[in-house]
Automatic annotation (TrEMBL):
GO (cellular component) term, any one: cytosol
Annotated family: Belongs to the RutC family.
PANTHER family according to UniProt: 2-IMINOBUTANOATE/2-IMINOPROPANOATE DEAMINASE RIDA (PTHR11803), 2-IMINOBUTANOATE_2-IMINOPROPANOATE DEAMINASE (PTHR11803:SF39)
InterPro entries, per database record: RidA, RutC-like_sf, YjgF/YER057c/UK114
Superkingdom per UniProt: Bacteria
Protein name: RidA family protein
């Protein structure tokens, strides 16, 4: 059985999907882009701010599901420009303990929804 997880503290989906789905003890979080949920506006112009907003959106969804970044077992980062990897990684690292950080891949892509520069999805387990 699956339970849909949704919160007003993260952006509403921009397509036919949900913010997250809880199946058993596993939470699958849809990719989050840097949309400020309070204003609905994109955060842009600074990859560190964009990454932080994406991670804050993920944090809000984790919180709604009763979890934290400690529960994350897998992350996927999609970037428009791999030259920004070190800046993205710097912000990302501030959300995790290096010794218990989740598995992860970072992939450069041609485009992302709303033509943002970064999108991050996660899988977490209670």
């Amino acid at each position: 059985m699956k339970k849909i997880i949704t919160t007003k503290n993260a952006p509403a989906p921009i397509g036919p999907y949900n913010q997250a789905v809880l199946s058993g003890n596993t939470l699958y979080i849809s990719g989050q882009i840097p949309i400020n949920p309070a204003t609905g506006e994109l955060v842009s112009g600074d990859i560190k701010k964009e990454t932080k907003q994406s991670l804050e959106n993920l944090k809000a969804i984790l919180t709604e599901a009763g979890m934290t970044f400690d529960n994350v077992v897998k992350s996927s980062i999609f970037v428009k420009d791999m030259h920004q990897f070190s800046e993205i990684n710097e912000v990302y690292a501030s959300y995790f303990d290096a010794d218990t950080a989740p598995a992860r891949e970072t992939v450069e892509v041609a485009n992302l929804p709303k033509f943002v520069n970064v999108e991050i999805s996660m899988i977490a387990v209670k």
